[in-house]
Task: inverse folding
């Protein structure tokens, strides 16, 4: 009985101690070590590439590169995994958090470069990239998309760029000419809507940032300007506001009713065009397959999006993907070598034939444009000088907190005027820039 | 009439409890009785000792009180008998028992609760005081202590206050609507015959069992401007329900009520079923209307159940995420339909600011705790006045 009493007395403190001990063992949230350090010359290289909608042709191109690579490097195996695009952010974050099971080489969206660099996930390959014989032909905008603070963190894999899709049958029926300036574009959009109220003239979306940016860039505006590595937003400048006004003027019953179009994103506008509900749309070279699969197959053409002056091309956003070596790799030399093989001129040419991905090398791009006339307007757009988002780690935060879509939506829903909305957006961006450095 | 209907009240309030008294409270009430008599000093010691005689005692009570009709008058008498006595042994027992034995029994549960509840909340609180973004998680930058920096940033953010206000109003509207619909249908269930009752039950359970994402998508499709049957039936053309702030919130509210009223309905229905029919009969003999019966007889008797479903609803509706996220496409046009949980998600996961997200989580936790405590406090005060 004494023992039981003693036990009863001590049980609660022991339980309390156990609980306290559990909490004490992990006082701070964890940080992982991504420094890598080793450089083994054989073993298994793990590669993560994005899973495309129809992945087989991509796999075929990659497999042939990998086979050649394995033959050239004895004792080396390459394990390629295709990860779903929708969950790539979580997967890549998880790879940074757990270097043990992380791959050596990844494909990543080029707007994520600065964020991943700040996370400490990507390895600096400036030296290898500069020494690489093919890199001199890399298009400057593509090179900018792997560069942060003057250092290079990967190799451009392909670029994606947007241009103006229009319905040839509708234009012919209404006797419309292809718009040559931004004003003509807006006028043409309204004429289409007026003649055919069941169509959007030009399908636009309040959440379609990369469809809206060309209007701002064409007017001489910028999202932000870099000042010594740190950025300051210029979305509220006079030029940028002119572009914002032009884009948001397209929302309304005379083109694309705000009630429907304010919430649309890029895919929605492409879907609207593909299903025959729009006279024009701003779509990418990568939207080609979706539009070909829609109702408008054979009834459309593509031209570069017109700029302010006749003959100008509105600067497009240079989207696309890069390949990068992870900081945590234990096979650095091998991984960089494989990266160069996968992003080589030959592979990019083969990838264009297989998937339609636009090459990042200017000369290769010229070649493929000759072979496939469809990509000509896109290559022309790139040639006229494409633009890129600020190479700041804050960009992914700005993107995720929907700063620009919120700005456009505030304007088109009549909640704020251009001045107030753009000033607020600039304020939000500057907060992000200063907090993320 | 009001005096008539009020009279049975004070008596009838505890009586559903009284109906249960012989089963549960009477068990312990019977059990401690022999304890102080037999083992005055060593009460905590012999663990199996009092337990085994207590259980036959409890089982002996149960069959006697179990059969309803006979039990209820006698249990009422028993209750009245124990009331004055309850204060006495209740106050003496913790001292007499010595205190630690209950902790011993509770230890396994406490360890589990500690691991699953306290520890995560502790981590949440800790992270909210740090600079902890993806760069810190993957080791690109060192983790630094920020003090109240995240909270200061949060409270300076105008949008946070707007979202907080929207969340409180929206949650309140959801709770009131859910409780109203749930209670009304629960009363209806007791009035209709078996077949319609079964149909209503099945429909409610169907809504309950539908995953939130599916339910939201289906509701959105029903109200779709181009393909939705609602616009076609109402002849609204291509009216967009999610464009206007209030109509978007109203649409989400409908879905939230639709998927959470079954819980209220089933629980309250079970509660009503446990109310002795004589009480209701007496009330209607006194000429009380349906509404009067609900307000003066059923609602007070169901108070414990209503408290639970209200708190549950407050917590659920304050934390609503899926419906807003799916139906307004992540917060609506220009973020007009953001609620705190979606806002926290945007901050914590979409933009990887885990520390700021944690600070929002802590604020939500404190608000919910405060609301619950104040609500319980108010109820208790009312109870004392009664």
Result:
């Amino acid at each position: 009985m004494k023992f039981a009493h003693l036990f009863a007395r001590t049980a609660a403190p022991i339980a309390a101690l156990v609980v306290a001990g559990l909490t004490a063992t992990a006082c701070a949230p964890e940080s992982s070590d991504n420094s890598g350090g080793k450089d083994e010359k054989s073993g298994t290289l793990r590669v993560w590439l994005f899973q495309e909608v129809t992945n087989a042709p991509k796999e075929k191109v990659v497999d042939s590169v990998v086979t050649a690579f394995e033959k050239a490097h004895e004792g080396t195996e390459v394990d390629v995994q295709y990860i779903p695009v929708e969950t790539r952010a979580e997967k890549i974050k998880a790879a940074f958090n757990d270097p043990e099971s992380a791959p050596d080489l990844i494909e990543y969206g080029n707007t994520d470069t600065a964020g991943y660099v700040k996370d400490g996930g990507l390895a600096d390959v400036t030296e290898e990239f500069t020494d690489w014989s093919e890199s001199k032909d890399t298009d400057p905008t593509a090179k900018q998309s792997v560069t942060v603070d003057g250092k290079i963190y990967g190799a451009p894999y392909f670029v994606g760029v947007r241009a103006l899709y229009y319905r040839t049958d509708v234009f012919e029926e209404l006797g419309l000419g292809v718009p040559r300036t931004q004003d003509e574009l807006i006028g043409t959009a309204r004429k289409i809507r007026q003649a055919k109220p069941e169509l959007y003239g030009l399908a636009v979306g309040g959440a379609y940032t990369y469809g809206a940016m060309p209007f701002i860039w064409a007017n001489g505006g910028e999202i932000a300007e870099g000042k010594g590595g740190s950025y300051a937003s210029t979305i509220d400048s006079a030029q940028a506001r002119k572009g914002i006004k032009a884009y948001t003027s397209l929302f309304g019953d005379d083109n694309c009713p705000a009630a429907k179009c304010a919430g649309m994103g890029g895919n929605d506008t492409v879907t609207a065009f593909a299903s025959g509900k729009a006279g024009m749309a701003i779509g990418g070279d990568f939207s080609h397959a979706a539009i070909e699969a829609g109702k408008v197959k054979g009834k459309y053409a593509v031209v570069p999006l017109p700029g302010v002056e006749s003959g100008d091309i509105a600067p497009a956003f240079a989207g696309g993907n890069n390949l990068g070596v992870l900081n945590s790799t234990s096979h650095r030399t091998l991984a960089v070598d494989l990266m160069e093989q996968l992003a080589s001129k030959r592979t990019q040419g083969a990838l264009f034939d297989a998937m339609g991905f636009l090459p990042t090398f200017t000369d290769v791009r010229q070649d493929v444009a000759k072979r496939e006339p469809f990509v000509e307007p896109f290559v022309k757009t790139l040639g006229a000088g494409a633009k890129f988002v600020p190479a700041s780690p804050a960009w992914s935060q700005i993107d995720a907190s929907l700063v620009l879509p919120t700005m456009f939506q505030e304007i088109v829903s009549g909640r704020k005027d251009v001045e107030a909305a753009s000033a607020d957006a600039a304020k939000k961006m500057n907060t992000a820039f200063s907090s993320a450095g | 009439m009001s005096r008539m209907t009020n009279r049975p009240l004070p008596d009838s309030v505890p009586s559903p409890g009284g109906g249960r008294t012989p089963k549960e409270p009477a068990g312990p009430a019977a059990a401690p009785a022999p304890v102080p008599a037999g083992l005055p000093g060593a009460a905590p010691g012999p663990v199996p000792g009092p337990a085994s005689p207590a259980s036959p005692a409890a089982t002996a009570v149960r069959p006697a009180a179990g059969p309803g009709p006979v039990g209820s008058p006698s249990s009422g008498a028993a209750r009245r008998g124990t009331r004055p006595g309850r204060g006495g042994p209740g106050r003496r027992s913790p001292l007499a028992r010595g205190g630690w034995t209950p902790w011993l029994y509770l230890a396994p549960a406490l360890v589990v609760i500690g691991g699953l509840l306290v520890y995560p909340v502790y981590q949440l609180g800790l992270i909210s005081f740090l600079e902890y973004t993806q760069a810190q998680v993957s080791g690109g930058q060192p983790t630094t202590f920020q003090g109240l920096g995240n909270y200061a940033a949060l409270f300076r953010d105008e949008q946070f206050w707007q979202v907080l206000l929207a969340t409180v109003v929206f949650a309140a509207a959801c709770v009131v609507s859910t409780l109203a619909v749930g209670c009304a249908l629960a009363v209806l269930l007791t009035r209709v015959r078996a077949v319609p009752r079964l149909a209503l039950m099945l429909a409610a359970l169907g809504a309950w069992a539908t995953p939130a994402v599916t339910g939201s998508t289906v509701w959105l499709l029903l109200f779709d401007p181009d393909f939705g049957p609602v616009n076609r039936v109402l002849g609204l053309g291509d009216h967009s329900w999610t464009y206007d702030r209030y109509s978007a919130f109203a649409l989400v509210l409908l879905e939230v009520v639709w998927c959470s009223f079954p819980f209220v309905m089933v629980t309250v229905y079970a509660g009503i079923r446990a109310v002795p029919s004589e009480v209701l009969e007496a009330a209607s003999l006194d000429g009380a209307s349906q509404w009067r019966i609900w307000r003066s007889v059923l609602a007070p008797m169901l108070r414990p159940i209503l408290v639970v479903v209200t708190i549950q609803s407050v917590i659920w509706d304050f934390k609503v995420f899926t419906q807003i996220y799916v139906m307004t496409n992540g917060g609506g046009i220009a973020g007009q339909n953001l609620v705190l949980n979606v806002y926290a998600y945007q901050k914590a996961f979409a933009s990887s600011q885990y520390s700021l997200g944690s600070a929002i989580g802590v604020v939500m936790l404190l608000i919910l705790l405060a609301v619950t405590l104040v609500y319980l406090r108010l109820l208790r005060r009312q109870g004392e006045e009664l």
